[in-house]
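Researcher: Quick one. three chains, 1367 residues in total.
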Amino acid sequence: MTGKPYRLPETAATGSRIDRSKQISFSFDGARMTGFAGDTVASAVLASGRKVMGRSFKYHRPRGLIGLGSEEMNALVGVGEGGRKEPNLRATQVELYDGLTATSQNRWPNLDFDIGIINNKFSRFLPGGFYYKTFMWPRSFWEKVYEPFIRNAAGLGEAASEHDPDTYEQMHVHVDVLVVGGGVSGIAAAHAAAATGKRVMLADENPVLGGVADISAGEIDGISQTDWVAARQAEFEKSGNCHVLTRTTVVGHYHHNYVLAAERVCDHEPDLLAQGAPRHRLWKIRAGRMIVASGALERPIAFANNDRPGIMMASAARGMVERYGTSPGMNGVIFTNNDDGYLTALKLHETGVAVSRIIDVRKDAPSALADAAREAGLNVQAGAAIAGVETTSGGKQITAVKIAPYAIGRGRVVNEERVECDFVAVSGGYNPVVHLWCHNGGKLRFDDDIQSFRPDRHGDPITVVGSANGNFDLKTCVEEGFAGGETAARELGGKAAKPVKKPMVKAHNAGPIEPIWFAPATGKYNEGNKHFIDFQNDVTAADLELAQREGYESVEHTKRYTTLGMATDQGKTSNINGLGVISDATGKRIPEIGTTTFRPPYTPYSFGAIAGTKKGELFLPVRRTAIYDWHKIQGATWEPVGQWRRAYCYPQAGETKQDAINREILAVRNKVGLLDASTLGKIEIKGPDAARLLDLVYTNMFSTLKVGKARYGLMMSEMGFLMDDGVTVRLGDDHYLMHTTSGGADNIVAWLEEWLQTEWTSLKVFVTSVTEQWSQFAIAGPEARTVLDKLDSDIDLSPEVFEFMSYREGTLAGYPVRVFRISFSGELSYEIATPSGYGRGLWDALMQAGKSEGIAAYGTEALHVLRAEKGFIVIGDETDGTVTPHDVGMSWAVSKKKADFIGKRSLDQAFLASKGRKQLVGLLTTDPQEVLPDGAYAVESIKSAPPMKMIGHVTSSYFSPTLQRSIAMALIEGGQDKMGETVSFPLEGGKTVEAVISSPVFLDAEGKRQNV
Amino acid sequence: MSEAVYTSPLAHLENTRDAGNLSVSMSEVSDRGMIDLRGEAGSVKFRQAAKAALGIDLPLKPRSSAVKGDMTVLWLSIDQWLVCCPQNKAGGLVSTLRKNLGEIHSLAVDVTDARAIIRLEGDNVREVLMKGSSIDFTLPEYKAGLVRRLMFAEIAALAHIVTDKPCTIDIYVFRSYADYTWKWIEATAKPAATIGLFGKRSG
Amino acid sequence: MKASPRLSRTRNDEMLIIQCPVCGAEGDETDFHCGGQAHIARPATSNPDNIADGEQRDYLFMRFNPKGLHFERWRCDRGCGKWFHAARDTVSLDFKAYYGITELPPADVMKQATGQWADFFKQATAGRPAAKKTAAKKTSTRKPVSTTAKKS
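Model:
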């Protein structure tokens, strides 16, 4: 057979998806292989004769291909190399391209010889819930022995360890009707809905539309299903109102028909990446109506060792032959409880693949297709089941099955017949894919006719059609789809210009299904006879039965205890079989047991799609001041403050960060420094009640402030805790400019709006943020005025005229400016604001002017040390949302005259005035060179081991180059009464630092330096 | 002293116009003056005084705008407008507004420097915006004149649809986000990433 | 299987798409900001001098947690910036009504309130002629504040 053991000769019935004229080379576990264009990794590897494609999760048993699409749970591969490697992909979905590299998973050192298989030998010690049982004792083993072992053994594929070089994106779209699933039902729905002119989106996870149309029997509108699908698709593409997404999995459904769909844009064609296309695209869809046409998945049958390579789903075997011209083997056996097995048997027979036996659970095999099989000369054995399999050594390939009459129960089979074969195609019936229906609360009901759960009620505007709704015959699938699409569009007001013809369907009636949840085995139950239910999680029938015996009555408990239906597979094939086993074990009917929860995502999708554009320099929005580029050129290191990047310090050649910080501080104390303070919040507040508003939001009085003057204000939350501070200036009688902290800029303007709109609705005040309008710099230091005096200005800077805590407007060096004589460093200081477009120009002019005075730009760390030397608090350092103005020694800023302001009543509550509260103090370490770590805890007394009573913590701690010693601020219980006392700070590694409680003002307590 | 140096929010880029390698054309609008105007829309006195200064009626319908000559007024809220004018006129206009408004409860502030404006043009503009925003820019009411504040690429922005054919949309963001916004659009508006939403395809 | 029909469905009558009653902007929940329970009176506004500790405690911390109809404050964050009130069902997540930030709910929605809310509205409307809504606004609709202190 063309040199490839399992590739079938080219006929009309084989290989519809592949192009045999185009050879593709790829590698699987390092072995070079070839396939054809249109192949999947699964079909190409199988065609090469390789049946083992993975190892199982827990027992490391060799596993082969089992499915045809996203339901595959054995053949999981990692695809790609380096940063592009993506683990856990289903080989059945990975389309082949030249140079593709795929690696199997769960094996070491390789697939053929895997050390972990030893777990299989010891499997009697790995029963359901074994994690919970085994690793309980001794307790001390947990951290060092058990946990590392579990972490090593757990997980499926390996994630890439390098950066992903590709781009990803997201797209929002609003549609009238979203159809999920491009099988015949979904296409009929989209067809009917699109005809009304409504906007329709049709999403399907496969590369081509049609679902299983190409491997099913029956005609639509007198042509083959495949031709009908192609005709509809051509219409959609011309319509202008129906957008078709292929290779797009609808992964989740959320409130209000919010739907996530993951599109694999380039995975099949990596060349697109080089052109700049995103590798994956995550669609965020709002749908007026959603039509779920997600089809059905064939379910396995639990028979002894049903996981051996060569055993696969009947639909998958048929699909391999018809789509990829790849036979699952040379000599097959069919095991079925419904008609689907016969479709496969007949197709294999037609294409020349030997079928030695059709084993039908049903007595008499009552169906037209069975008769057709018999007519074709196939050996149909009714009322029988597989009781065991024989394999080559290591279980890598089946060689025969054992067949016995089927009887419900767990008894041991003795009279079995041995039939040689190298593959088994299994059909246990179909389960509607109800995952999406259930994501946002859709209800299910059990249907005896299909022996499965089907959709029942849903509170959202969703319709489910076709086999997803439990209707497996072609006629109902198409008609229900069409009606669903028409109704959805009509409910949204859509009406077709001219009536669309309902598709006419010709198909056979299917025979009934006989439930089979367990096929008794030849050997002793559960000894060498594993009946797998959940292949991906290695859960067997015996595990589920054990869980029942151990009292896990709720199916949700059984799920967690055994891991049935967990992880990426989400019970696609295992759910109903698991319930069947529990039903047998408990005597309860399946609907009484209920089902577990299906959670998004339906199949995994990449982190790249979740992140979208948020990577690299677009990971987070970054805010830049107008001076950003200057800071960058000067080699500034950055401090993120919210989304802002502020210059932390400016190390010069040969300087450490600490050197730079010290130099910058000393420049301000001894000469002059310049700080980019543009990020400070700035709010214009205007109106006849502006003063009244400020009196209500600040703890202190602002109505008494004179025009042209500035005042420092404290803001509390309604609970009496500090939340912001800053200097507010009175620009006019009814006009103020408020400064807030950088972090509070957006919050405080919203805070003022909230109070104005919702509480003090009669106040006539407008507030508006002007934070970004102004670049603002602090020029600070004894030489600050000298530098400014060099620049042309219409502002008189002389100290008698322009006093501390006042404000002027004018020009400076030709720039329009607002100048505030305020100080956060304790030095002579002016804050100068200019419209941001002028910011860089003025900054350069100031740096130029200050050159001869030795001006230095200083960053946020110098700023913090400077203010700490002066004992000024920083909201968020000295406060943490539980600190009052009294606690930080600022009772002077809390008005006693005002009847009401935010937080006033709470501040009066007894517990906020109590003696023992933590209070702000200064700390002087006994070793002046020892800098306490931020957040270090003070204890009442040092003991040899914890617990020690904690009495406070360090809020800010620095080395002060001005004082040549360490300084710190701390909140200490009753601290203001403990001046001069020594407190201890036990640190990591048994070290203890002692410090003397002092005033938090370490420098110039009289404030002489700033007032010159 | 030398002349005051003025720089636009995106002046640090080598080029404030795209290099023609995107699915939209993109450029910085750096010559626009902006005034934040607040007042009570219900007050006839306020509206008249504003009109006397601006020469144009304030748009009162949510998300609308008014254009006359070189002046465009964007509706921001029921009591807030963004007045756009040539940059050299902004300062004078603020003074005129304040003078005309006098004692009428209002606030007029020059915010020319607070925002950056990025102009996007071309058939693909709506699609690019929908990659960064949950707003449906394909709705029928999203035509020339519409103003919409939105979350765009995770930041607060304002979109003003200037013309429909060709599609021209101005994106206003706070100045500090200008660089981020520009780079976000550069990364997103790659021709190979074009979707062609609901576009008719031949065949 | 057909889902239960929503007869009067427009895009704004369902969870997570919200419409601002002030400017009419419709958008995702992320375009809005929820400000917690509505109609909480701030004692200090009407009577700053005489507030019992318990009254202040209730104002700051005590909140309704109904299963079913709830009344909340929301802000049109990405639109006009205005606050408004909304009645929302905490089970179905449907918005039942939007109304002004200084208003009580529409009478038909207020009638559907149960438990603590029913008691609350009974008190709030006691002795008040239904027609004179405007007069009642200022006393009946107060704001709560955020229960965590904001930080810089």
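Strands of chain B lie at 25-29, 32-39, 65-68, 71-77, 80-86, 106-110, 115-121, 147-152, 155-163, 168-174.
Researcher: Thanks, that's what I needed.
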